[in-house]
Amino acid sequence: MASSDEGLRDPVNGVGRGGSARRRVAVPSVAERVADELRYQLAEGMLVPGTRLTEAAIAEELGVSRNTVREAFAELASERLVVRHPNRGVFVATLEAGDIHDVYTVRRAIEVSAIRGGGTPEGIAAVRAAVEEGKRAAAVEDNEGLGSANQHFHGAIVALAGSRRLDTIMSHVLAEMRLFFHKASVDAHFYSGYLTENDEICSALEAGKLDRAGELLHAYLDRSEAQQRAVHGE
Length: 234
What we know:
It comes from Arthrobacter cavernae. It holds the Pfam family GntR. Residues 1-20 are annotated as: Disordered. This is GntR family transcriptional regulator. Keywords: DNA-binding, Transcription, Transcription regulation. The protein contains nine helices and five strands, in the order ββαβααββαααααα. It is mainly alpha-helical. It has two domains: 5-92, Arc Repressor Mutant, subunit A; 99-231, GntR ligand-binding domain-like (Four Helix Bundle (Hemerythrin (Met), subunit A), Up-down Bundle).
């Protein structure tokens, strides 16, 4: 975790417009930024299903109040990423098998659309960077690193759309994905199976074959959903 409030994601400042006219941009509250940090840690595999989260420890590490952490927990609970058990505390959620189809429906809608729209050279380079990150992790048999690279790959695909709203939605989806994947990733080869497909999808994107990239990604997501259903016994 970040060691202080300064380590949390920076809010967007208000901007001037036409001299005296001024447009205010919504500034995320500190609680929202704490929730964002915890979502990030879920997506990166730092917090696994069933982990107990304590207000005091998180407040100290992030340099915020316990009330702020409590508000962040409420936000994450509304997203079903954490659960509160009376007299026991707050825990990282263990998602149900029935959630799988919902998550993959969202993924197909936003990821395939984003890749078919192409993107800037910088955005495409970020997709390639995630593929190369995965290759480096695979070379040293770093399965968790490979898992994070896979998350970065899918996040970079959605970022191609240039939409902050879609990026926000995807941050939630990435957290849910990692919660699902923890059960499957006990297989040391789980993430490496995706690496070749990621490379192929990226190559089609780089070549400007956007429909082909979309087709490959759609098929990839269909196979991934089927695999998750099998792992979770659905």
